[in-house]
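May I ask for an example protein's residues together with how it folds?

___
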Amino acid sequence: NLKSAAKQCQLGRLSFLTSKRSSSSSSASRNRQIAGRRRFYLNVDIQPLSEQTPWQATSGVGDSSATVQSPISAGVDGSNSASGVHHRIKDKSSALYVSALRHNLLPRKPLLSEPGMAVGTGNKPTEEDITWYGVTLDGRLIQTPMGQTLMVPSELLAAQIAAEWDSVENILKPTQMPCMTLTCTALDQTAAHPQILRDQLTRFVPTDTICYWADPTEDRVLHQRQEEAWRKIHDRVEKVTGVPLATVSGAQEGMMMAVRGLPHRPELVKYATDFCSSLDTWHLTALQSLAVEAKSFWLAWALMTQQYSGKDENDDLPMVFQEVADAVHASRVEEEFQISVWGVVEGQHD
Protein backbone atom coordinates (compact mmCIF):
# COMPACT_ATOMS: atom_id res chain seq x y z
CA ASN A 1 0.00 0.00 0.00
CA LEU A 2 0.93 3.68 -0.22
CA LYS A 3 1.94 4.03 3.45
CA SER A 4 4.22 1.01 3.21
CA ALA A 5 5.80 2.28 0.00
CA ALA A 6 6.37 5.73 1.49
CA LYS A 7 8.01 4.17 4.54
CA GLN A 8 10.29 2.09 2.34
CA CYS A 9 11.26 5.21 0.38
CA GLN A 10 12.09 7.04 3.59
CA LEU A 11 14.21 4.13 4.83
CA GLY A 12 15.95 3.91 1.47
CA ARG A 13 16.67 7.64 1.49
CA LEU A 14 18.01 7.43 5.07
CA SER A 15 20.26 4.53 4.07
CA PHE A 16 21.48 6.52 1.07
CA LEU A 17 22.29 9.57 3.20
CA THR A 18 24.05 7.41 5.80
CA SER A 19 26.20 5.78 3.15
CA LYS A 20 27.08 9.21 1.78
CA ARG A 21 28.23 10.40 5.19
CA SER A 22 30.42 7.35 5.61
CA SER A 23 32.11 8.03 2.27
CA SER A 24 32.80 11.70 2.97
CA SER A 25 36.31 11.32 1.56
CA SER A 26 34.94 11.33 -1.98
CA SER A 27 34.95 14.68 -3.76
CA ALA A 28 31.35 14.24 -4.92
CA SER A 29 30.16 13.84 -1.34
CA ARG A 30 32.20 16.85 -0.21
CA ASN A 31 30.66 18.99 -2.92
CA ARG A 32 27.13 18.00 -1.90
CA GLN A 33 27.86 18.71 1.75
CA ILE A 34 29.39 22.09 0.97
CA ALA A 35 26.47 23.04 -1.25
CA GLY A 36 24.10 22.28 1.64
CA ARG A 37 25.96 24.72 3.86
CA ARG A 38 25.85 22.29 6.77
CA ARG A 39 28.82 21.59 8.98
CA PHE A 40 30.80 19.04 7.00
CA TYR A 41 33.97 18.81 9.13
CA LEU A 42 35.03 17.63 12.56
CA ASN A 43 38.27 19.40 13.40
CA VAL A 44 39.34 23.02 12.94
CA ASP A 45 42.92 24.20 13.29
CA ILE A 46 45.36 26.85 12.08
CA GLN A 47 48.51 26.17 10.09
CA PRO A 48 51.58 28.36 9.50
CA LEU A 49 52.38 28.73 5.81
CA SER A 50 56.06 29.55 6.02
CA GLU A 51 56.81 29.27 2.31
CA GLN A 52 53.59 30.69 0.90
CA THR A 53 52.21 34.17 0.40
CA PRO A 54 48.88 35.27 -1.11
CA TRP A 55 50.53 36.89 -4.13
CA GLN A 56 52.45 33.68 -4.89
CA ALA A 57 49.44 31.40 -4.56
CA THR A 58 46.49 33.39 -5.86
CA SER A 59 44.66 30.27 -7.01
CA GLY A 60 45.21 27.91 -4.10
CA VAL A 61 47.94 25.36 -3.53
CA GLY A 62 47.34 23.27 -6.64
CA ASP A 63 46.37 19.96 -5.00
CA SER A 64 42.58 20.03 -4.61
CA SER A 65 42.74 17.33 -1.91
CA ALA A 66 44.73 19.74 0.28
CA THR A 67 42.07 22.49 0.17
CA VAL A 68 38.36 22.80 0.84
CA GLN A 69 36.11 25.03 -1.24
CA SER A 70 34.46 27.87 0.59
CA PRO A 71 30.79 27.20 1.28
CA ILE A 72 30.28 30.97 1.28
CA SER A 73 29.31 31.95 -2.26
CA ALA A 74 30.88 34.87 -4.08
CA GLY A 75 27.45 35.59 -5.55
CA VAL A 76 23.80 34.93 -4.87
CA ASP A 77 23.76 31.92 -7.21
CA GLY A 78 27.33 30.69 -6.78
CA SER A 79 28.61 33.02 -9.48
CA ASN A 80 30.23 36.47 -9.32
CA SER A 81 26.83 38.14 -9.50
CA ALA A 82 26.61 39.59 -6.01
CA SER A 83 26.50 43.34 -5.67
CA GLY A 84 29.99 44.73 -5.14
CA VAL A 85 31.77 41.61 -6.39
CA HIS A 86 34.39 42.36 -9.04
CA HIS A 87 36.16 39.88 -11.28
CA ARG A 88 39.85 39.47 -10.63
CA ILE A 89 42.43 40.34 -13.25
CA LYS A 90 42.82 37.29 -15.47
CA ASP A 91 46.58 37.51 -16.00
CA LYS A 92 47.68 36.52 -12.50
CA SER A 93 51.20 35.84 -13.73
CA SER A 94 51.72 39.51 -14.64
CA ALA A 95 54.69 40.91 -12.74
CA LEU A 96 52.89 44.24 -12.31
CA TYR A 97 49.80 42.52 -10.88
CA VAL A 98 51.84 40.39 -8.46
CA SER A 99 53.79 43.46 -7.35
CA ALA A 100 50.55 45.35 -6.69
CA LEU A 101 49.15 42.42 -4.69
CA ARG A 102 52.34 42.24 -2.63
CA HIS A 103 52.22 45.96 -1.87
CA ASN A 104 48.54 45.84 -0.94
CA LEU A 105 48.66 42.69 1.18
CA LEU A 106 51.81 43.30 3.23
CA PRO A 107 50.58 44.69 6.58
CA ARG A 108 51.81 48.10 7.63
CA LYS A 109 50.83 50.48 10.39
CA PRO A 110 48.66 53.45 9.41
CA LEU A 111 50.63 56.61 10.12
CA LEU A 112 49.22 59.89 11.28
CA SER A 113 51.02 62.92 9.92
CA GLU A 114 51.75 66.32 11.30
CA PRO A 115 50.08 69.19 9.41
CA GLY A 116 51.87 69.77 6.13
CA MET A 117 53.55 66.34 5.98
CA ALA A 118 52.67 63.67 3.45
CA VAL A 119 50.39 60.98 4.82
CA GLY A 120 52.16 57.67 5.31
CA THR A 121 55.69 59.09 5.17
CA GLY A 122 58.15 56.31 6.01
CA ASN A 123 55.35 53.74 6.11
CA LYS A 124 57.01 51.06 3.98
CA PRO A 125 55.85 47.43 3.97
CA THR A 126 58.34 44.72 4.85
CA GLU A 127 58.30 40.92 4.68
CA GLU A 128 60.52 40.55 7.75
CA ASP A 129 58.99 38.74 10.72
CA ILE A 130 55.71 38.12 8.88
CA THR A 131 54.32 34.59 8.95
CA TRP A 132 51.17 33.78 7.00
CA TYR A 133 48.60 31.45 8.52
CA GLY A 134 45.83 29.35 7.04
CA VAL A 135 42.77 27.74 8.63
CA THR A 136 42.19 24.02 8.15
CA LEU A 137 39.05 21.89 8.26
CA ASP A 138 39.99 18.26 8.89
CA GLY A 139 43.52 19.09 7.75
CA ARG A 140 42.54 20.84 4.52
CA LEU A 141 43.14 24.57 3.99
CA ILE A 142 40.05 26.72 3.53
CA GLN A 143 39.69 28.64 0.28
CA THR A 144 38.01 32.00 -0.24
CA PRO A 145 34.76 32.22 -2.26
CA MET A 146 36.79 33.08 -5.37
CA GLY A 147 39.15 30.13 -5.04
CA GLN A 148 42.23 31.52 -3.29
CA THR A 149 43.84 29.80 -0.33
CA LEU A 150 42.81 31.81 2.70
CA MET A 151 45.96 33.31 4.26
CA VAL A 152 46.29 35.97 6.94
CA PRO A 153 49.43 37.67 8.32
CA SER A 154 48.35 37.21 11.93
CA GLU A 155 48.15 34.12 14.14
CA LEU A 156 45.52 35.85 16.28
CA LEU A 157 43.30 36.59 13.27
CA ALA A 158 43.69 33.00 12.05
CA ALA A 159 42.66 31.77 15.50
CA GLN A 160 39.60 34.04 15.47
CA ILE A 161 38.55 32.72 12.06
CA ALA A 162 39.10 29.15 13.25
CA ALA A 163 36.94 29.87 16.31
CA GLU A 164 34.12 31.07 14.05
CA TRP A 165 34.24 27.82 12.06
CA ASP A 166 34.47 25.71 15.21
CA SER A 167 31.44 27.44 16.77
CA VAL A 168 29.17 26.24 13.94
CA GLU A 169 26.84 23.60 15.33
CA ASN A 170 24.84 22.71 12.23
CA ILE A 171 24.19 25.30 9.50
CA LEU A 172 26.91 27.69 8.32
CA LYS A 173 25.79 31.30 8.75
CA PRO A 174 28.20 33.81 7.16
CA THR A 175 26.51 36.67 9.05
CA GLN A 176 27.86 35.11 12.25
CA MET A 177 31.40 34.83 10.85
CA PRO A 178 32.58 38.47 10.60
CA CYS A 179 36.33 37.75 10.63
CA MET A 180 35.97 35.13 7.90
CA THR A 181 33.78 37.43 5.82
CA LEU A 182 36.07 40.45 6.11
CA THR A 183 39.16 38.34 5.38
CA CYS A 184 37.57 36.95 2.21
CA THR A 185 36.60 40.48 1.16
CA ALA A 186 40.17 41.63 1.72
CA LEU A 187 41.73 38.80 -0.28
CA ASP A 188 39.15 38.49 -3.08
CA GLN A 189 38.17 42.12 -3.57
CA THR A 190 40.23 44.78 -1.80
CA ALA A 191 43.66 43.42 -2.72
CA ALA A 192 42.88 43.47 -6.44
CA HIS A 193 40.56 46.50 -6.51
CA PRO A 194 41.62 48.85 -3.67
CA GLN A 195 40.57 52.01 -5.50
CA ILE A 196 36.92 50.96 -5.38
CA LEU A 197 36.98 50.93 -1.57
CA ARG A 198 38.99 54.15 -1.43
CA ASP A 199 36.34 55.88 -3.54
CA GLN A 200 33.57 54.48 -1.35
CA LEU A 201 35.29 55.82 1.75
CA THR A 202 35.96 59.32 0.47
CA ARG A 203 32.31 59.64 -0.57
CA PHE A 204 31.43 59.68 3.14
CA VAL A 205 33.48 62.83 3.76
CA PRO A 206 31.08 65.42 2.23
CA THR A 207 28.09 63.95 4.09
CA ASP A 208 29.73 62.65 7.26
CA THR A 209 27.18 62.03 10.02
CA ILE A 210 29.25 63.60 12.82
CA CYS A 211 29.26 66.94 10.97
CA TYR A 212 25.47 67.35 11.10
CA TRP A 213 24.50 68.77 14.48
CA ALA A 214 21.14 69.53 16.02
CA ASP A 215 20.39 73.21 16.56
CA PRO A 216 20.89 73.82 20.32
CA THR A 217 18.07 76.38 20.30
CA GLU A 218 15.67 73.79 18.86
CA ASP A 219 16.89 70.55 20.43
CA ARG A 220 19.22 71.21 23.34
CA VAL A 221 19.28 67.62 24.68
CA LEU A 222 20.23 66.00 21.36
CA HIS A 223 22.87 68.68 20.71
CA GLN A 224 24.38 68.00 24.14
CA ARG A 225 24.55 64.25 23.44
CA GLN A 226 26.21 64.91 20.09
CA GLU A 227 28.71 67.17 21.81
CA GLU A 228 29.58 64.45 24.30
CA ALA A 229 29.93 61.75 21.64
CA TRP A 230 31.54 63.65 18.77
CA ARG A 231 33.60 66.55 20.14
CA LYS A 232 36.74 64.44 20.75
CA ILE A 233 36.62 63.18 17.16
CA HIS A 234 36.51 66.75 15.85
CA ASP A 235 39.37 67.76 18.14
CA ARG A 236 41.48 64.79 17.00
CA VAL A 237 40.90 65.56 13.32
CA GLU A 238 41.91 69.20 13.78
CA LYS A 239 45.00 68.31 15.82
CA VAL A 240 46.22 65.79 13.23
CA THR A 241 45.35 67.70 10.05
CA GLY A 242 45.53 71.28 11.28
CA VAL A 243 42.10 71.85 9.72
CA PRO A 244 38.70 71.78 11.50
CA LEU A 245 35.81 69.78 10.15
CA ALA A 246 33.05 71.83 8.54
CA THR A 247 29.74 71.45 10.37
CA VAL A 248 26.10 72.42 9.88
CA SER A 249 23.43 73.03 12.50
CA GLY A 250 19.72 72.38 12.32
CA ALA A 251 17.47 70.41 10.00
CA GLN A 252 17.06 73.03 7.27
CA GLU A 253 20.77 73.72 6.83
CA GLY A 254 21.48 70.01 7.14
CA MET A 255 19.12 69.07 4.29
CA MET A 256 20.68 71.73 2.10
CA MET A 257 24.23 70.53 2.75
CA ALA A 258 23.24 66.90 2.34
CA VAL A 259 22.65 67.74 -1.33
CA ARG A 260 25.54 70.15 -1.85
CA GLY A 261 28.05 68.44 0.41
CA LEU A 262 29.83 69.88 3.43
CA PRO A 263 32.18 72.81 2.69
CA HIS A 264 35.33 71.09 3.95
CA ARG A 265 38.59 72.79 3.14
CA PRO A 266 40.55 71.15 0.28
CA GLU A 267 43.41 70.19 2.63
CA LEU A 268 41.04 68.07 4.70
CA VAL A 269 39.62 66.25 1.69
CA LYS A 270 43.15 65.63 0.40
CA TYR A 271 44.19 64.23 3.77
CA ALA A 272 41.29 61.75 3.73
CA THR A 273 42.15 60.69 0.17
CA ASP A 274 45.86 60.29 0.94
CA PHE A 275 45.15 58.40 4.16
CA CYS A 276 43.00 55.84 2.33
CA SER A 277 45.67 55.46 -0.35
CA SER A 278 48.32 54.73 2.29
CA LEU A 279 46.45 51.79 3.84
CA ASP A 280 47.17 48.14 3.23
CA THR A 281 44.41 45.72 2.23
CA TRP A 282 43.59 44.74 5.81
CA HIS A 283 43.23 48.25 7.22
CA LEU A 284 41.39 49.48 4.11
CA THR A 285 38.81 46.69 4.38
CA ALA A 286 38.33 47.32 8.09
CA LEU A 287 38.01 51.09 7.62
CA GLN A 288 35.42 50.67 4.88
CA SER A 289 33.39 48.28 7.02
CA LEU A 290 33.50 50.64 10.00
CA ALA A 291 32.53 53.67 7.90
CA VAL A 292 29.57 51.87 6.32
CA GLU A 293 28.21 50.83 9.70
CA ALA A 294 28.83 54.21 11.35
CA LYS A 295 27.92 56.29 8.27
CA SER A 296 31.00 58.30 9.12
CA PHE A 297 34.51 58.32 7.69
CA TRP A 298 35.95 60.33 10.56
CA LEU A 299 34.47 58.17 13.31
CA ALA A 300 35.93 55.08 11.62
CA TRP A 301 39.24 56.91 11.14
CA ALA A 302 39.39 57.89 14.83
CA LEU A 303 38.67 54.35 16.01
CA MET A 304 41.32 52.87 13.73
CA THR A 305 44.09 55.40 14.29
CA GLN A 306 43.73 55.51 18.07
CA GLN A 307 44.77 51.85 18.20
CA TYR A 308 48.29 53.12 17.52
CA SER A 309 48.13 56.25 19.70
CA GLY A 310 50.54 56.49 22.59
CA LYS A 311 52.93 53.94 21.06
CA ASP A 312 55.21 56.59 19.58
CA GLU A 313 57.20 58.98 21.76
CA ASN A 314 55.95 62.01 19.85
CA ASP A 315 52.30 60.92 19.86
CA ASP A 316 50.37 62.86 22.49
CA LEU A 317 46.93 62.46 20.92
CA PRO A 318 44.22 61.67 23.48
CA MET A 319 42.08 58.56 23.20
CA VAL A 320 38.69 59.25 21.63
CA PHE A 321 37.05 55.98 22.67
CA GLN A 322 37.89 54.05 25.82
CA GLU A 323 36.15 50.97 24.43
CA VAL A 324 34.74 49.88 21.08
CA ALA A 325 31.29 50.17 22.67
CA ASP A 326 31.89 53.94 22.93
CA ALA A 327 32.36 54.11 19.15
CA VAL A 328 29.16 52.14 18.64
CA HIS A 329 27.36 54.60 20.91
CA ALA A 330 28.80 57.57 19.00
CA SER A 331 27.49 56.13 15.74
CA ARG A 332 24.00 55.73 17.23
CA VAL A 333 23.54 59.03 19.07
CA GLU A 334 20.51 60.18 17.09
CA GLU A 335 18.97 56.70 16.92
CA GLU A 336 19.30 56.17 20.67
CA PHE A 337 17.90 59.65 21.30
CA GLN A 338 14.83 58.90 19.19
CA ILE A 339 14.37 55.59 21.00
CA SER A 340 14.59 57.36 24.37
CA VAL A 341 11.84 59.75 23.26
CA TRP A 342 9.51 57.51 21.25
CA GLY A 343 10.46 54.00 22.28
CA VAL A 344 11.71 51.20 20.03
CA VAL A 345 10.05 51.08 16.63
CA GLU A 346 11.54 48.05 14.90
CA GLY A 347 12.83 48.74 11.41
CA GLN A 348 12.13 52.48 11.64
CA HIS A 349 15.13 53.98 13.45
CA ASP A 350 18.04 54.50 11.04
